[in-house]
Amino acid sequence: MAKKAKTKTGNTPQIFAIHAPAAMTVQLAGDFTHWQEHPISLKKEMGGVWRTEVELPPGTHHYRFIVDGSWTDDPDCTLRVPNSYGSQNMVRTVG
Question: Is the pTM of this model over 0.85?
């Protein structure tokens, strides 16, 4: 993934995307949204890819997608950690 320029706040824009052509809704939840308190809705694009851009501060961030109400892994994320629900959180490191 290409490096993105930092914003005035010191945050870096990060793209989150998932291929889910049959989905009706896709949301992004993570430590940066206080998980289910403030999930971010993704927009459906051509080819069934759902996408959003989020400005994140430097550090390590855990996240998951919620596809039609079901917690879903990011198939493109290779760095994962176990969570307390018996599944895994995806990990995104912002440099």
Answer: yes
